[in-house]
Amino acid sequence: MSRAVCPGSFDPVTVGHLDVIARATELYDGVVVAVGSNVSKSALFAPDERVTLLREACVAWPSVQVTLFSGLLVDFCAAHEIDVIVKGLRSGADYDYELAMAQMNRRLTGVDTAFLPTAPELAFVSSSLVREVASLGGDVTPFVTPAVLTQISRRLAERASG
Ligand code: PNS
Fold first, then answer.
1. Closest CA to 121 of 93, 146, 90
2. Is the pTM of this model over 0.90?
3. Is 91 a catalytic residue?
4. Active-site residue among 23, 50, 87, 90?
């Protein structure tokens, strides 16, 4: 049985992430969506909130498990018998960023990374732009699920009220 991990910050999960996760379910028997914290990014949602939103968004795929992870991704892979790391690539900039991590991860434990090119119509969608557009009053409806949209509105309202 082949098992893949789709790691990320998912703050919040976007339709671009869901496209990659859906395609991973067609390639691997089991897919673990692992929610980590990227220390260089300021968060909108706490890690457990991101897990909850992802579980709702992935409910249609029985082979998908969503979990938190901390520490090295390669250690998570070893502990969960993961064969391959799956990452979506939107652009050459993503490739430059991801390539070194993929090479480092392979050097550390031998775990390999498979890159899936993002659907072209979703190539500009990122969690960071969703956060920025939403926080400045823009409409992010096309880029997230309805449940995520509701939680973004709620979180921004909480922040605005103090
Ligand atoms: O969605 P992001 O922010 O690009 O996700 C990045 C993440 C969390 C997948 C990445 O930072 C990661 O793998 N962190 C785990 C720590 C780790 O293994 N670092 C060494 C990478 S070579």
1. 90
2. yes
3. no
4. 90
pLDDT at position 100 is 97
Please compute the mean of the pLDDT values over residues 37-59 and round it to a whole number. Answer: 90
Q: Is 127 a catalytic residue?
A: yes
Kindly state the tokens that stand for 115: 């890159």
* Number of C-beta neighbours around residue 146 at 10 A: 10
Examine the pLDDT at 162 and tell me if it is beyond 80.
no
Look at 31-40, 48-57, 66-75, 98-107 and tell me which has the smallest mean pLDDT.
31-40
Whether the pLDDT of residue 107 is over 90: the answer is yes
Q: Which of ligand 1's atoms lies nearest the C-alpha of 72?
A: 18
Rounded to whole angstroms, how far apart are CA atoms 65 and 21?
A: 11
Helix axes 146-160, 127-135, angle to 10 degrees: 50
